[in-house]
From TrEMBL:
<dbReference type="InterPro" id="IPR004722">
    <property type="entry name" value="DHOase"/>
</dbReference>
<dbReference type="Pfam" id="PF01979">
    <property type="entry name" value="Amidohydro_1"/>
</dbReference>
<dbReference type="Pfam" id="PF12890">
    <property type="entry name" value="DHOase"/>
</dbReference>
<feature type="domain" description="Amidohydrolase-related">
    <location>
        <begin position="179"/>
        <end position="388"/>
    </location>
</feature>
<keyword id="KW-0378">Hydrolase</keyword>
<dbReference type="GO" id="GO:0004151">
    <property type="term" value="F:dihydroorotase activity"/>
</dbReference>
<dbReference type="InterPro" id="IPR002195">
    <property type="entry name" value="Dihydroorotase_CS"/>
</dbReference>
<dbReference type="InterPro" id="IPR006680">
    <property type="entry name" value="Amidohydro-rel"/>
</dbReference>
<feature type="domain" description="Dihydroorotase catalytic">
    <location>
        <begin position="53"/>
        <end position="101"/>
    </location>
</feature>
<dbReference type="InterPro" id="IPR050138">
    <property type="entry name" value="DHOase/Allantoinase_Hydrolase"/>
</dbReference>
<protein>
    <submittedName>
        <fullName>Dihydroorotase</fullName>
        <ecNumber>3.5.2.3</ecNumber>
    </submittedName>
</protein>
<keyword id="KW-0665">Pyrimidine biosynthesis</keyword>
<dbReference type="InterPro" id="IPR024403">
    <property type="entry name" value="DHOase_cat"/>
</dbReference>
């Protein structure tokens, strides 16, 4: 067994011993990081003084590029990156190749061979059975997000009733829990029908609240200085305002991705005050960077929505501080460095984020004095799990905090009622470290945060009560 001595519970401050089943033979580690040694009895004892045990981080917005773009990322490398970042649960976006729409894969199309070679007929089936078909054990739990329109083409709405029927009444390890055409907003022509199908299926719409046909970066002094077409800020607000009205008409839950502008946050505040079924997220890069970062990082700071003005960045932080933002998601978007080095106009949008998100957010929000340690965990673990329809692990509840005890208590995960449902992160909230993309577990390196000095680091990740990643 593995015992972490004197670890602090994230929301109560109680100091406990945490006992995990098994050994440290198989967890992932960073390069050149040794595993802790076992004692003569075969047990591992770790001094966890100063560390925090919290529910595992969760990210409802990741792109693992498998199938179809595995030069950028695979399920294996993406899940390793998630575990490295303290994440225990993720939601995989549907812009795979072929798209994750539940439709049969046609032989000869891009990415089709990877699906058909496994004897699977569509991408949902491919990802649900990935571990058994590839002979791997992935160190993170994951759900699936299906396309809002077939092929993500914006034409015909996806057959959500058919998708849901395939998992109804069965214990599905990797269920479809959300709908999105991530990368594009749902077109006006099919929006109401998509929302009707989403509501009937008992799912929610994750909306990419940005639409523009021209432009590469935020419209403003930076775009003018570089002589590049700009993207106006109202390209986001138009989609947000449209979808708030649609949520009012239909009663369907709409969750806005990567919100980045002051105007959008104000519209969302008003919608929430009205009691509409609206939630939203933002991402570490909108917290930490403005469009000025383009001048320093070039294509590594190119994304969609684009990095906005310094005033919008402050609006992002204010919306986090006042509770308008429900959660923080990474929008982990791997690309090859050859693609990113193609120049600002040609480079694809997006950056990776799973392995440094907690440190970047801790530096900007907690060290910056805007929110507490506890609030950051709520934003990165508790709220995302609830959005995805899961219950975050209640450490204090497992300890049965209602009982009186004068001595330090032990949480032995070998003896809890459902050890398979216990997902935890062990965090060093005070650790300062330097982001080094070359040590990432992701296949990708496209981040502007390389070389940043941040604080707060995930030290271990526990899935189903078992240690799957360790820096201890």
């Amino acid at each position: 067994m593995i015992t972490l001595h004197d670890v602090r519970v994230w929301d109560t401050g109680e100091v406990i011993d945490l006992v995990l089943p098994g050994t440290v033979d198989h967890p992932l580690t960073d390069p050149d990081t040794p595993l802790p040694a076992a004692g003569a009895d075969g047990d591992v004892r770790i001094d966890a003084t100063g560390l925090t045990v919290a529910p595992g981080l969760a990210d409802p917005h990741v792109h693992f590029r498998d199938p179809g773009q595995t030069a950028k990322e695979t399920m294996v490398s993406g899940c390793a990156a998630a575990a490295s970042g303290g994440y225990t649960n993720v939601l995989i976006m549907p812009n795979t190749v072929p798209a994750m729409d539940g439709e049969p894969v046609a032989a000869g199309g891009p990415g089709a061979d990877e699906v058909l070679a496994m004897g699977r007929g569509d991408v949902i089936d491919f990802l649900r059975h990935y571990e058994q078909d590839h002979g791997v054990a992935l160190p993170v739990a994951y759900d699936l997000c299906v396309c809002a329109s077939k092929g993500r083409a914006g034409g015909e709405p996806t057959d959500l009733a058919g998708v849901v029927a395939r998992q109804r009444g069965r214990a599905v390890e990797h269920p479809v829990t959300a709908v999105s055409d991530d990368g594009s907003a749902v077109p006006d022509a099919i929006l109401d029908e998509v929302l009707r199908r989403v509501k009937d299926a008992g799912l929610y719409l994750i909306e990419h609240c940005e639409h523009h046909d021209t432009g590469f970066i935020n419209e403003g002094p930076v775009s003018r200085r570089l002589g590049l077409p700009g993207i106006p800020e109202d390209t986001e607000l138009r989609i947000v305002a449209r979808d708030i009205e649609a949520a009012r008409r239909t009663g369907t839950h709409v969750h806005f991705q990567h919100v980045s502008t002051a105007g959008s946050f104000e519209a969302i505040r008003r919608a929430k005050a009205e009691g509409l079924p609206i939630t939203c997220e933002t991402a570490p890069h909108y917290i930490a960077l403005s469009d000025e970062a383009i001048l320093e990082y070039g294509p590594l700071a190119k994304m969609n929505p684009p990095l906005r003005s310094a005033a919008d960045r402050q609006a992002v932080i204010a919306a986090i501080a006042d509770g308008t933002v429900d959660l923080i998601a990474t929008d982990h978007a791997p690309h090859t460095m050859d693609e990113k080095n193609a120049g600002l106009e040609a480079a694809p949008n997006g950056i990776i984020g799973l392995e440094c998100a907690y440190g970047v957010c801790h530096r900007e929000l907690v060290d910056g004095g805007y929110i507490s340690e506890r609030r950051l965990i709520e934003l990165m673990a508790v709220a995302p799990m609830r959005l995805m329809g899961h219950t975050p692990t209640d450490v204090a509840g497992l300890l049965n905090t209602g009982s009186a005890c004068a001595t330090k208590r032990t949480l032995d995960l070998r003896r809890v009622e459902h050890p398979e449902s216990v997902n935890l992160a062990i965090l060093d909230t005070a650790r300062a470290w330097t982001v080094d993309p070359e040590r990432f577990h992701s296949k990708a390196r496209n981040t502007p945060f390389g070389g940043w000095r941040v604080t707060g680091r995930p030290m271990a990740t526990i899935i189903g009560s078992r240690l799957v990643f360790s820096r201890l």
